[in-house]
Automatic annotation (TrEMBL):
Protein name in UniProt: DENN/MADD domain containing 5B
Biased composition, class Low complexity, residue ranges: 158-189, 428-447
Domain UDENN: 53-613
Presence of keyword Membrane: yes
Protein location: Membrane
Source organism per UniProt: Oncorhynchus kisutch (Coho salmon)
Length: 1320
């Protein structure tokens, strides 16, 4: 035990934690791979077959050489490391993801290298680097077992002269054994040998893996060390020291390089150099980014990067494990200063295939089978999936996501960096300079000089980068060379003496690189420089975009404990203010990105840095921002969308070059250990059994190990003290874990136990996670939407911008897609939700035809029919809304249709109800979903629908505002006042409906389409009903209603006009309560009516929808006395009420202009609506007005204006006005001009309509306050107004002018329906 402790004492600073050997256990013999059996069980379950029968029994259809067998961890040193416990199952599974594979001498046996990582629950990572090679099987029992299996296979399949074809199962790509992914030559070799095995003539080989497990990703160094270990075994002469010396050296005597330093240690044959970035530099990333860009191309990689930032589901697909790892690590490296917070499995073993069902964001790598067609790969969900086919250099993107800011300039800058290193930005082609250390797939190496093929092939053979094996074209070249006696002698001599051919190569001019570095070292330096320069370009984008992020972080908690306790309720970042400070082109991307988990975690780390040591990535990022501020890099371009190029490319590359040129530390050389003599005798081609006693204990006299142990103890003591001062340690740990896991899901599936019970438990975690996410999302949507009320309740941000709202709704659509994808039996189409809806539609349509005549209707239908007695009921059903979506030609895909359906249901406040209806068909749900699916968990499903129901408390226009170009049917119902004689008209009526997006144009209505309906008391009501179709008008604002005054009954008393959007069901009420006709009321033949959305939940409103409401009724304003009620018959508002009404109207207009432009809504309602400016000024002008009837003729305010203008014009002609000051004279002219233009308009809008128009034009052109004194000074006022009138009180008029003056700061624009036909 003491040995273990000694070994682990310095573990945090050791270069490697474990050395592992995996392979076949000759004692237990051949065992079928349990994981392959589990895979079959899962696959059968997925396809709806009985899983137990499918997994039972041996699989004799496949040749035993193609089947997978159980591998084991044969040895690992040391036994255990205290802070990185050895996980035997996980390491075995990831070292040999597809188990053991067998070969004969006829097959290609090229060694393979791949990496993997294990993510622990706290998010920390351990890296593994694996060198897999083939070793001859010497056990007679295993050879005879293989012979027996082959004979049984032949007996089962007498016709199998050729290797069996691959299974048709869509997910079979993971179950295949390693052979399919090897060299192109393997298939031809195998068919030549008929894929058979005969123990008497064939030599059997089995795969074996050497693995180093390290705390940091020193990929190049580990790769070179392992390949040298393999070379030592295959070389003709034994290595200089026993292999135990080298393993002991790398485990216990090689430290991690200190930050900002380089380290040299020794392999079996050559020294190996690695370096670590300094504290202010980007963190270590040793996987070759150049290769990632080569495989995908810049354009594809930037798109993949964007999808990763927006936390979509990302699936990498390649035959080569190392390619999967290189792309996965490359893309997560580029996220600096952010970190991927979700499931991260770069290599997904066959047994974890069910994890693709995970309804959460993930980044996973799937190994493909050679020749597998992508179209046959059925993935559980694709609505939000970014599929990356690495080998074919292409990606499939999800629909409809925002682009990364300044994308063209960003791609241009990256392309320039790549071209400097001879790499094509287009991708798909190998680099122009072939890195011997980065090529892992046989046949993918290409050379620039065909004439040098022979040299290249021999060099590849001797160089450790290829481990003495070649594939494809170079193998053929080598065979030609082997006839050359001189070369053969040189080769043998090189092997005997251990001299590197690399050193002799200098004679031919190809030898060492600059400064005495070998070609391999030169290549590694080049890779390291390219890596850091590409990463700097990415990091520079974030430094520019988030230069001011700190100003928007909300530091609301006094200490860490209270912050952690209330973490879920707190707002940590002022999103609305941050977005309002950004350049317009950045907003679509940023509004999505600041909603992600990685951004939330970044902000959490920032807040926690007040009380704790800064998280390393945050420290580096903040340092860069401070440096940028120091040099004023960003100040001039604040809020600018101009692209800023990275300025530190040269320095970053120089820092790496200097570290590699001047080695800071050299580790102790490998040396002889105190070992028993005679054990582990060298036998060429076989990896010996190592002596475990010397490898389980590290040296006790290491200076650096003692130093780091002391430092660690000091750090621990300090941490314990601070914890004791603030919180009880356990409590703090609990809070920490809860806070950090907030909103996060499983990082990596458990690799140890993969029983069906554990899989079920994993799925249960997903169900809980989805429910929690639904709760958080709906709460966020409600809080944001409730605005001012929410702020008063202490929830933070007051305004939600349309952009934010759209982001939140898009995020809800994504969540619903993931819920509907969880636990699908068989995937159909890219959208699981739409697929379910189509199944439902097919079942219901027959039923619906039978129910069409039935009087029974469901809840929403009844609700809609109540909205107005004059309106026929609107069918509101799941199917009806689907038909609306299906008829929209603009939407081309299933994913788009599902999202449009969600938006429509949300706008209609029927989302929860529709989904409840959809899930009520339990037989259908059972047919489509497995038993563990979210949609089959009754309690969670109920809670989920309840959370969605809460969204009905707020109004969304998320369908109307997004699909602005679609054609929408509208129904207009004109409801006359109830006396039948007034309801009839012989003239030809027309309407023109206007909204925020445009108007319908004048629509003629066939006269006397008189319909009669009955209300609940069976009283008859008549109305005119018209249907028309036009492009989406958005939220409706005004209706122009008129007629042509023809026929005997040309006078028409109209109560109101109701207009309904037949798709969304939104009904707008446009109150009128006036006559249309010559010689009645104010003589108007046309009126502009201002509308408001009819509230569907006020039952008393519905009841009155068709009866004449009392003039003082105001459905829109319940909180204060309305202007209409003030102006009603028999009621005279006081001067204080009138002045308050004017103040409120002006205040509303000011507030309107202080909102973001896209959030302002309709200005027309604020000017002409029920509590608008026009109505308030009418009250002012009516106060003290002598409107007594003279010979049955009513006098209107407009009469006063006309008389005043007539007086001014006559006075001007007589010369009285000439003495007036010039500005006053000009004002006079403008008033006369405007009144004349309104009077000469071809429209018949009546006297009140003309006064409304004058007020609107005066407000627009900032003339109102100049016209008022003219009207007050005019002598006409004395004849038409009483002494006590407000208009004759100078103080009140001056106060009114001061209030109206505030409108001059705003650019008032008038809707076309108001100013139509006015020529100024």
């Amino acid at each position: 035990m003491s040995g273990t402790n000694a070994a682990s004492g310095a573990a945090p600073c050791r270069f490697a934690h474990y050395f592992v050997i995996c392979g076949i256990d000759t004692e237990t013999g051949l065992e079928p791979d349990e994981l392959a059996a589990l895979y079959q069980w899962l696959e059968a379950d997925r396809q709806g077959r009985d899983p137990d029968t499918a997994a039972a029994g041996e699989n004799f259809e496949q040749s035993p050489l193609k089947r997978t067998f159980k591998s084991k961890v044969l040895a690992h040193y040391p036994e255990n490391v205290e802070w990185n416990p050895f996980d035997q199952d996980a390491v075995n599974m990831l070292c040999m993801p597809k188990g053991l594979s067998f070969r004969t001498q006829a097959d290609s046996r090229e060694p393979q290298f791949h990496s993997f990582l294990i993510t622990r629950e706290d998010g920390s990572r351990t890296y593994g680097f694996v060198h897999t090679f083939y070793e001859e099987v010497t056990s007679p029992q295993i050879c005879s077992a293989m012979q027996t299996l082959y004979q049984m296979h032949q007996a089962e399949n007498p016709s199998s002269a050729t290797p069996s074809s691959s299974s048709s199962s869509s997910m079979d790509s993971l179950a295949s054994s390693l052979d399919e992914a090897d060299s192109p030559s393997s298939s031809s070799c195998r068919s030549a040998a008929c894929g058979g095995y005969d123990a008497s003539r064939d030599t059997l080989y089995v795969s074996k893996a050497l693995c180093l497990i390290t705390p940091m990703p020193f990929m190049h160094a580990c790769r070179r060390f392992l390949s040298q270990m393999h070379r030592a075994v295959t070389a003709a002469s034994p290595p200089p020291l026993p292999l135990e010396s080298y393993v002991h050296n790398i485990l216990y005597e090689v430290p991690l390089p200190p930050p900002g330093r380089s380290l040299k240690f020794h392999g079996v044959y050559e020294p190996i150099v690695c370096q670590r970035p300094g504290p202010g530099e980007l963190p270590l990333a040793d996987f070759p980014l150049g290769q990632t860009f080569t495989l995908l191309g810049v354009e594809n990689l930037v798109q993949l990067f964007n999808c990763t930032l927006l936390e979509m589901q990302i699936l990498l697909y390649s035959q080569d494990y190392q390619r999967l790892m290189t792309v996965a690590e490359g893309i997560t490296t580029l996220l600096f200063p952010f970190q991927w917070q979700h499931v991260y499995v770069p290599i997904l073993p066959a047994s974890l295939l069910h994890f693709l069902d995970a309804p959460v964001p993930y980044l996973m790598g799937l190994q493909s089978k050679e020749g597998t067609d992508r179209s046959k790969l059925e993935l559980p969900q694709e609505a939000n999936l970014c599929f990356v086919d690495i080998d074919n250099h292409c990606i499939e993107l999800p629909e409809d996501f925002p682009q990364f800011p300044n994308k063209p300039e960003f791609i241009q800058e990256l392309s320039e960096v790549l071209l400097r290193y001879g790499i094509s930005p287009v991708g798909g082609a190998p680099p122009t300079s072939v890195p011997t250390t980065t090529t892992t797939t046989p046949g993918s190496v290409s050379t620039r000089h065909p004439g040098l093929k022979s040299q290249q092939a021999l060099r590849e053979l001797e160089d450790d980068g290829r481990n003495g094996n070649l594939g494809g074209e170079q193998l053929a070249v080598l065979e030609l060379l082997q006839g050359n006696a001189t070369l053969e002698r040189l080769q043998a001599l090189a092997k005997r003496t251990g001299v590197r051919v690399e050193a002799l190569r200098g004679v031919g001019g190809e030898g060492e690189g600059q400064g005495g570095r070998t070609t391999v070292e030169e290549e590694e330096l080049r890779n390291a420089k390219l890596n850091v320069q590409l990463r700097e370009v990415f990091a520079s984008r974030f430094t520019t975009m988030f230069a001011d992020y700190e100003a928007f972080v909300i530091q609301s908690a006094p200490d860490l404990e209270s912050w952690l306790t209330n973490r879920e309720q707190m707002h940590n970042f002022d999103k609305a203010s941050f977005l309002s400070d950004q350049p317009e082109p950045y907003l679509p991307f940023l509004s999505h990105f600041i909603e992600t988990q990685m951004f939330a975690t970044f902000i959490d780390n920032k807040i926690m840095s007040q009380w704790e040591e800064k998280e390393p990535l945050l420290r580096v990022f903040d340092g860069r921002i401070d440096k940028a501020r120091l040099y004023n890099v960003r100040a001039p371009s604040l809020r600018s969308s101009n692209y800023q190029r990275c300025t530190v490319l040269k320095e970053s590359a120089q820092a790496i070059e200097q570290r590699l040129m001047k080695i800071d530390h050299t580790a102790i050389h490998p040396h002889l250990l105190d070992m028993k003599i005679g054990q582990g005798k060298y036998e060429q081609g076989f990896f010996p059994k190592l002596q475990s006693d010397v490898l389980s204990v590290g040296p006790t006299n290491n200076k650096w190990s003692n130093r780091t142990a002391t430092a660690q103890r000091r750090k621990d003591r300090h941490r314990q003290q601070t914890e004791h001062l603030t919180l009880d340690n356990d409590l703090k740990e609990k809070y920490m874990q809860e806070a950090r896991s907030l909103g996060k899901n499983l990082r990596q599936p458990k690799l140890s136990d993969l029983s069906p019970a554990v899989i079920a438990q994993t799925n249960w975690k997903f169900v809980e996670g989805l429910l929690k996410e639904c709760r958080m999302k709906t709460k966020r949507m409600l809080v944001e939407k409730m605005g001012r009320e929410a702020v008063e309740l202490g929830h933070g941000e007051a305004n939600i911008t349309g952009l934010e709202e759209n982001t939140l709704i898009a995020s809800l659509c994504d969540l619903l897609e993931r819920i509907w994808s969880h636990g699908l039996q068989v995937k159909q189409g890219k959208s699981a939700l739409w697929s379910h809806l189509l199944h439902y539609q097919a079942r219901e349509e027959k039923l619906e035809q039978q129910q069409a005549e039935s009087p029974v209707s469901n809840g929403p239908e009844r609700r809609k029919s109540e909205s107005s007695i004059g309106m026929p009921s609107l069918r509101a059903s799941v199917i009806q809304d689907m038909r609306h979506i299906q008829s929209m030609g603009e939407i081309k895909t299933d994913v788009g249709r599902a999202r449009a359906w969600i938006r429509l249901s949300l706008e209609k406040k029927l989302l929860s109800q529709h989904l409840k209806q959809l899930l009520s068909r339990q037989a259908l749900t059972k047919k489509l979903y497995k038993r563990y699916a979210f949609l089959r968990c009754e309690e969670e499903k109920e809670q989920f629908l309840f959370h969605l129901l809460s969204l009905n408390t707020v109004d969304y226009f998320c369908f109307t505002s997004v699909f602005t170009t679609i054609m929408i049917p509208y129904r207009a119902v004109i409801i006359p006042i109830k006396k039948l004689s007034n309801a009839m008209t012989t003239s030809n009526p027309w309407v023109c409906v206007s909204g925020e997006l445009g108007d319908s144009g004048v629509r003629q209505i066939t006269k006397n389409i008189l319909e009669m309906t009955f209300d609940s008391a069976f009283r008859p009501h008549t109305h005119i009903d018209a249907m028309f179709k036009c492009q989406n008008l958005g939220k409706l604002t005004t209706v122009q209603l008129g007629h042509d005054n023809s026929g005997l009954l040309a006078k028409w008393l109209v109560d109101c006009v109701m207009v309904r959007n037949e798709i969304t069901g939104h009904t707008y009420k446009f109150p009128c309560g006036r006559w249309l006709g010559k010689g009645v009321d104010d003589g108007s033949l046309e009126r502009v009516l201002i509308g408001e959305l009819a509230l569907p939940n006020a039952d008393e409103d519905f009841g009155r929808g068709c009866r004449t409401p009392d003039m003082q009724h105001s459905p829109g304003q319940t909180r204060r006395v309305s202007i209409t009620s003030m102006g009603g018959r028999g009621y005279k508002p006081t001067s204080a009420q009138i002045q308050e009404a004017i103040g409120e109207a002006v205040n509303s207009i000011c507030k309107h202009f202080h909102k973001p432009e896209k959030e302002r809504g309709s200005l027309t309602i604020l000017l002409c609506g029920e509590v608008g400016l026009v109505g308030a000024l009418e009250l002012f002008f009516h106060n003290g007005f002598k409107s007594a009837r003279l010979f049955q003729k009513t006098v209107f305010v407009w009469d006063f204006v006309e008389k005043a203008v007539a007086y001014m014009e006559s006075a001007d002609q007589m010369g009285d006005m000439q003495e007036t000051a010039e500005p006053l004279g000009l004002t006079c002219v403008s008033l006369c001009h405007y009144v004349s233009a309104i009077n000469s308009s071809p429209r018949n809008i009546g006297k009140d309509g003309k006064f409304q128009l004058l007020v609107c034009l005066g407000a627009r052109d900032r003339l109102l306050i100049q016209w008022l004194p003219l009207l007050v000074e005019c002598p006409v006022i004395q004849r038409m107004y009483e002494e006590s009138a407000l208009l004759r009180d100078r103080t009140t008029v001056n106060a009114l002018i001061a209030v109206l003056q505030t409108l001059h700061d705003f650019p008032i624009t008038l809707e076309a329906s108001l100013v139509k036909g006015i020529d100024l």
